[in-house]
Amino acid sequence: MNRIRAARQARGWTQNELAERAQVAARTVHAVEKGEACRQATKRKILSALGVPWELRDDYFPGPRRVRHAPIEEARSA
Questions:
Q1: Any idea where the domains of the chain sit in the sequence?
Q2: Are 18 and 50 spatial neighbours (Cβ–Cβ below 8 Å)?
Q3: Which of 3, 22, 32, 58 could disulfide-pair with 45, CB 3.0 to 4.6 Å?
Q4: What is the secondary structure of 3-44 as a DSSP string?
Q5: pTM: predicted TM-score of the whole model, two decimal places
Q6: What is the rounded distance in angstroms from the CA atom of residue 32 to the CA atom of residue 78?
């Protein structure tokens, strides 16, 4: 489960309540909980509203996935 969603639900908040406390749009909270990327400022606002230290941001907002490309020779023969 998404850590932002888990933290929000642990506090008994709706997405709208978190959005209001973090001063972001409710659709932003929805997108973040779906795993979509957001700005650093948005991350700060959401984590602050949830009472999560900035140092733990990587636990709540994992970095982008790395795509492993097949070597050119394998791709040509496929």
A1: 3-60
A2: yes
A3: 22
A4: HHHHHHHHTT--HHHHHHHHTS-HHHHHHHHTT----HHHHH
A5: 0.79
A6: 36
Is 3.40.50.720 the CATH number for 3-60? no
On whether the CB atoms of residues 9 and 2 are closer than 8 A, the answer is no
Q: Say what the alpha-carbon torsion angle 32, 36, 45, 10 is, to the nearest 10 degrees.
A: 30
pLDDT in tens, 42-72: 999 999 999 999 999 999 998 766 667 766 6
Tell me the two tokens of residue 34: 């779906």
* Cα 74 to chain centroid, rounded: 34
CB 53 within 8 A of CB 36: no
User: In whole angstroms, what is the distance from residue 66 CA to residue 60 CA?
Assistant: 18
Give yes or no for a contact between 29 and 22, defined as CB atoms under 8 angstroms apart: yes
